[in-house]
Every structure is written in structure tokens, then in C-alpha cells.
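# nightly structure sweep
# worker-07 picked up a monomer target from the shared queue
# config: single-sequence mode, recycle default, output format = C-alpha cells
# input follows
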Amino acid sequence: MRHKKLDSLGVSAFCESMAMMVQSGIQMDEAVALLRQEGDMHGPLEQALEVMQRHTQEGRGLSVAMGAAEIFPDYAVRMVAAGERAGRLEEVLFHLSGYYTDQKTMADKLRSAVVYPITMLVVIIAVLAVMLTMVLPSFLGVYENLTGSLTDSSYGYVRWAYGICWAALAVMVMLALVLLSGILLWRSKKRHVLETVLGKIPICASIFECLGMFRFTAALSTFLASGQMQDIAVTESMKMTDCRSVEKKIARLAERMGEGHGIAQAAYSERLFEPVYGRMLLAGERSGSLETVLEKLTNLLAGHCCGLVDRLVGVVDPVLSGLLMLTVGLSLLSVMLPLIGMMNAVG
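# output follows
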């Protein structure tokens, strides 16, 4: 039976709760039992906790119980298992909580960046449809009653209003179809095609790279907290980037580390991060606080990603709003000009 996966926020809350209980010295089976008693939980988490409680009462570890529940991401299960082996379960759980909270924040930010232009396009298409089906026909009927025909009259440029609205409507529908196709392509196996196309747009390329680096540093911080060797941590974290350009950079980083360089020195030499971030890593490695620096770096990258997404939305918003106002304004001007002519003739 296929179980519904827990979302990022749910995984984060679970990991944080378990981390605090482990920190308090509560046994694993008791911790899971306490979570079941916390409140009115329904759905996949309630069923999962029931399965986990059964496994932990039999003496199995948290990672085994999470795997048996089948609602947690594979990455979280692997990290918990690594933390158990290294005796650093508490640290790993806290890291996972922060990791999935950041993932949720990034996902919501990207979702809003996509939903907003879709909403704007729907509004624009609706306004243009109303213009074409109700507003313009009303003006057309009035003018035809006054002049008998618009064919040879001075009111003929009402046709310009129709032309402007139809052209704008065609463009907006085309944009909506392109955006919808992009969403479907992004969710398909041909996602790399869309990445290649969007990668040619500077701001989109920057967002992809920043998101890739954010995922890499967040995963790397968690892997190192679990006690993994640096080279293994880098290789495993590379799988989390979901960005080909970033994967290529990290592959070169792994090669340098294979030559005997430390992770910070290799990252600085390969310009994996901005120079200021690279120096932060070097200082952290030399002072023995690499994990702390990586956490700070992850937060900085998260903020930078949010800023880039906000900048993209800030560009799309005025463009779409401007197109709407320009189209409606020109259309109304076209249908009002005959009325102005009539008023001048009467005056």
C-alpha cells in the first residue's frame, strides 16, 4: 500500500519534537508514545506514529521505525540512521528540522512567484473578455443607432478598440498556455529542457543556482552533523541540488578534495561560493567550526534566494499591470473618441 508522504512542515515539526525529547533523555519508545498523546492527530501521521511505536517498543531504532512508517522522505530516514550510527541523533534531528523548514519556505516562495503571474493573467483575460462581450458591443450599438452604420462614418475607429482587445487577448492566452506548459514540463521527465531555456534568462539562472547552492549547503551541514566524512558528505549533498550547473561545480569540488584539499580550500579555489562566503568557510574550517559556518551560510543563501524571487515578481507585476492598463486605456479611448466628436459637433 502506498502511503502519502508527509510535507516539509510536518517533517520539520516531527524532527524538532523528537530532538527535544532526545535532548531531555526520554527513551525512543516513550517519545513516540508522547507524540501520539499530544493532540488530535489524524491522517498519515497518526497511522505512522502507531507503526513507529510498535517498532520502537520492539527495540528498533528511530530510523527503522521511520522507514517502516513510509511517510518520511528517504533523505530524512538516511540522515537519522547516520546520526544514530555516529551517536549524534539529537544534532541531526535539529538540523533536519531547520532543513525542512527552509525547504518549506523556499517552496512557498517559488509557488507564490508562479501563482501570482497566473492570477494576473486570469484577471487580464477576464477583463478583456468583458470588454469584448459587453463594453464594446454596448458602445457599438449606441453609435449604430445614432449614425445608422459605422462602415463609412467617423466612428469607424471603434474597430480599433476591437483590434486592440483581440490582439491583447491573444497575447495573454498565449502567455497563459506557455506558463501552463512550463509547469507541466517542470513536473515531467523533460524538466532539463525547461531548465536549459530558463537558464538563458539571467535572473532565472541566478535563482536556479542560488536554490541549488542553498540545498547543497543545507544538506552538507546535516551530513556533517551526522558524522559523515567530508568527501562522502559532498557527494551525497550534490544529489540534493536539483540544478545541473551547480552539480557540475560540486563535481569539480569533489575532484579537488580527492587530490587532498580540504572542503573549504577546494570550495574557495573553485569559486563555488561568493568570495566573502568562501572566506567564511576557510575561517570556519581553520577554527573547527565548519558546521556553524555552514548553517549561517545556508541562512544567508535562503535570504538571497528570497530576494531574487521577490525581484522577479517585482519585474512581472508592473509589466502585466502595465499591459492591462495600456490595453484597457487604448480601447476606451478608441470608443470615446466618437463621443468627443459628437459633443464638439453639438457644441
